[in-house]
Amino acid sequence: MAHDHHPDHGHDDHSELGEMDLRVRALETVLTEKGYIDPAALDVLIDTYQTKIGPRNGARVVAKAWADPAFHDWLLNDATAAIASLGYAGRQGEHMVALANSDEQHHMVVCTLCSCYPWPVLGLPPTWYKSAPYRSRVVKDPRGVLAEFGVELPASTRIRVWDSTAEVRYLVIPQRPAGTEGWSEEQLADLVTRDSMIGTGLALAPGAAP
Amino acid sequence: MTYISHADLGGKDVPGRIVPEPEDERFHAGWEARALALTLAMGGTGSWNIDASRSARETLPAYAQMSYYEIWLAALEKLMAERAQVMPDEIAAGHMLHPPQPVKRVLRAADVPGVLAKGTNVERPATGPARFTVGQRVRTRAGHVDHHTRLPAYVRGKSGTIAHRHGVHVFADAHAQGLGEEPQWLYTVVFAGEDLWGPGSEPGLSVSVDAWESYLEAAE
């Protein structure tokens, strides 16, 4: 699984995982002995990105934007402040910009140079976002990339790809699905997928939510 | 010395499929989580900045053959070896063999939430007027530079339009080289698909990058 994105890798997965495990463990021991790190901080960091900071944060931002026109406008005008008002701020989300999808324009986000991604709202990037196939292709053939995600847009929809080459981080606001009039923000958030906030997916239709 | 980034992938012909992933999947092995945490914790010592770490990653000769956290780990080891903080013989031995170097600070468990929530703001006060205005046509710098840069190869020497002005930001090129922050105006520059990929480009496609002022010249 870890190596899906470079199938030419010559190693046996099991021996290699063992090798990486040992190397990381050795490094952690040396860094701890030298007093550079607090091992307890590692557990807090991992727990934070495993259980606290993930794409449900962004889903709440999008759901609020769908339900609250004033918040929607604030999000488009000053995304950093609007997102911070919900408690999501900090590392890799210091300078946020929100992009609203419409029938006319569909936004997609990439970092062709590394893996820049809005951590406070989406958590850590998925493997495909960091992979060479996505980073190389989406700026040139976004419809081909969308097809790989099972998404087809009308030919009349223009596509805009945002390459995150500085410290500005982008959050896509997908289109609100039809048939959700009067839904609460909590109900709406369940329709907002991570991929829809990157632009490689669409929000779920009512009834399709988990 | 010629600086080569192996990470500048936009528009390159790269084989392989894109493999979608469930959104509750975070790490694919226990060591990946530890590698992430070690990288963030060592970043927290203030021994280098994020641009220097991106530079360390993108110049790894085996970049294309490594998984993402293998890249992070190799770059971390490189950054520490350059500063004599941890040497390869110590990683091989799994124990400290040389005395530690002083570090500016240590990221303590109790401080993690505050440090993550604060982040690192890279916007700086403007010291001069912006050279370009929204809607203005610009051309990007052409050709190679011999250091870390954030202007991808696929937009070099291309004409585009200023779409947004973001304020004055720490300049990644200088920052990565340890030359200080040298803050500059930062812009979003949008390019038409056909200007990047030729007449066969998808109709209606536009692609934008965020570009520091020194990457840009006024165009007709």
TrEMBL record, chain A:
Q: Name one Pfam family in it.
A: NHase_alpha
Q: Which GO terms describe its molecular function?
A: nitrile hydratase activity
Name the reaction it catalyses. an aliphatic primary amide = an aliphatic nitrile + H2O
EC number assigned by the record: 4.2.1.84
Q: Which residues form the Nitrile hydratase alpha/Thiocyanate hydrolase gamma domain?
A: 19-200
Q: Which UniProt keywords apply?
A: Lyase, Metal-binding
Q: Which domain of life is it from?
A: Bacteria
Similarity comment text for this entry: Belongs to the nitrile hydratase subunit alpha family.
Name this polypeptide is given: nitrile hydratase
Organism, per UniProt?
Variovorax ureilyticus
User: Gene that codes for this?
Assistant: nthA
UniProtKB/TrEMBL annotation, chain B:
Molecular function in Gene Ontology: nitrile hydratase activity
**Keyword annotations:** Lyase
Tree of life domain: Bacteria
Residues covered by the Nitrile hydratase beta subunit domain: 123-217
Q: Which reaction does it catalyse?
A: an aliphatic primary amide = an aliphatic nitrile + H2O
A Pfam family cross-referenced in the UniProt record is NHase_beta_C
Query: What are the Nitrile hydratase beta subunit-like N-terminal domain coordinates in residue numbering?
Result: 7-111
Q: Which InterPro entries match?
A: CN_hydtase_beta-like_N, CN_hydtase_beta_C, CN_hydtase_beta_dom_C, Elect_transpt_acc-like_dom_sf, Nitrile_hydratase_bsu
Using the UniProt record, name the top-level EC class of this enzyme in a single word.
Answer: lyase
What's this protein's function?
NHase catalyzes the hydration of various nitrile compounds to the corresponding amides.
Protein name, as recorded: Nitrile hydratase subunit beta
> Which species does the entry assign this protein to?
Variovorax ureilyticus
